[in-house]
Amino acid sequence: MTTRIDGNEIADSVKSNVESCVETLGKDGVKPGLATVLMSEDSASETYVSMKQQACEAVGIESYHYEIPANAPEETLLKRIKSLNSKPEIHGILVQMPVPDHVNEQAVLEQIDPIKDVDGFHPENVGRLTIGNPRFKPCTPHGVQKLLNAVNEETEGKDVAIVGRSDIVGKPMMNLLIQKAKTGNATVTVCHSRTENLAEKTRNADIVIAAVGVPELIDGSMLSSGTVVIDVGVNRVEADNEKGYELVGDVDFDSAKTKASAITPVPGGVGPLTISMLLYNTVKAASLQEG
Ligand code: GUN
C-alpha cells in the first residue's frame, strides 16, 4: 500500500499553530507583517506571490505588496528593500525569485536585513544553517522536513538522494538532512545535471527528493520498492484545457507510486507546506524583532 502524502492537511496543522502564535503576539499589540516584492512578469511568479499574500491574510499576518517593473534598474529594487528594512511594521521581506537577468540576485539577497530574511537566503542565514544554528530555515526544505515528520519517516541513518542542487531547495535540504538532529542524521547524495548514472543513485536511496525542474524525470524504474518519494517540482506543461497548461512534478507519479511506500502528489504535496513555513518564519521574525 502506497501512502499518498496529503500536503494540504499537514499544512493546515502548521497554519493553525501559526494562527495561535499570531493571537499571542496580538495580545502584546504586535501584528506580524510580511512584504512581498515582485520584479517579474512571469505569470507563475505572480501566482505564487498572490498565494503567499492570501495565506498571510488568512492567518492574520498583514501583507504588504510591492511590484517593480521588470525592466527597472537594479537600484530600484535595492532601494525598495532598504526602505522595507527600516519599517518596523514589516517583519519579513520576500523578494520572489527569479529576478530579471540584469539584476544581481546575490546583491538583492544581501540587501535584505538578515533578521527580516524569512526565506533564509541571506549569506548570514545560509551560514547559520550550515553550522547547525539556523535562524530561518528555507521554506521548501523545511516543509519537506515537516512532511517526512508527519508520515513518521525518520531520516536518521537513511540514504537520501536529492536531485537538484539549487540554493533555494537542494543545498539547504542537504544541510538540514545532515544536521546532528533527530530530523537529520541522514547520509545525503546531491545529484545534478552532471551526475553520472542518476538512476543508480536514486535506486540506492531510502528517500528521494526531486527538486530539479525537469518534468517527470524520475520514474518508477529509477526507484527501489519502499522508497519515500518527495516531489518538489512544479512544472507547467502544455495541455489541451482552458489554461493551456497543467502542472506536473519532477516525478512521474503513476509509475513511481507502484514502487513508493509514500509519495507526494503535484499539486497538493510540498507546495502548501512551502507557504505554511513562510508564515511560520514571518511569525518567528516578528517574535525576534519585538521580543
Ligand atoms: N522562487 C521559487 N521558490 C521561491 C522561494 O521559496 N522564495 C522566493 N523568494 N522565491 C522563490
TrEMBL record:
Catalyzes the oxidation of 5,10-methylenetetrahydrofolate to 5,10-methenyltetrahydrofolate and then the hydrolysis of 5,10-methenyltetrahydrofolate to 10-formyltetrahydrofolate. One of its GO terms (cellular component) is cytosol. Keywords: Amino-acid biosynthesis, Histidine biosynthesis, Hydrolase, Methionine biosynthesis, Multifunctional enzyme, NADP, One-carbon metabolism, Oxidoreductase, Purine biosynthesis. This is Bifunctional protein FolD. Its EC number is 1.5.1.5, 3.5.4.9. Homodimer. Residues 5-119 form the Tetrahydrofolate dehydrogenase/cyclohydrolase catalytic domain. Pathway: One-carbon metabolism; tetrahydrofolate interconversion. NADP(+) binds at G164, R165, S166, V234. Residues 138-288 form the Tetrahydrofolate dehydrogenase/cyclohydrolase NAD(P)-binding domain. It comes from the Archaea. GO terms for biological process: L-histidine biosynthetic process; methionine biosynthetic process; purine nucleotide biosynthetic process; tetrahydrofolate interconversion. Gene3D superfamilies: Leucine Dehydrogenase, chain A, domain 1, NAD(P)-binding Rossmann-like Domain. InterPro entries: Aminoacid_DH-like_N_sf, NAD(P)-bd_dom_sf, THF_DH/CycHdrlase, THF_DH/CycHdrlase_cat_dom, THF_DH/CycHdrlase_NAD-bd_dom. Belongs to the tetrahydrofolate dehydrogenase/cyclohydrolase family. It catalyses: (6R)-5,10-methenyltetrahydrofolate + H2O = (6R)-10-formyltetrahydrofolate + H(+); (6R)-5,10-methylene-5,6,7,8-tetrahydrofolate + NADP(+) = (6R)-5,10-methenyltetrahydrofolate + NADPH. The gene is folD. GO terms for molecular function: methenyltetrahydrofolate cyclohydrolase activity; methylenetetrahydrofolate dehydrogenase (NADP+) activity.
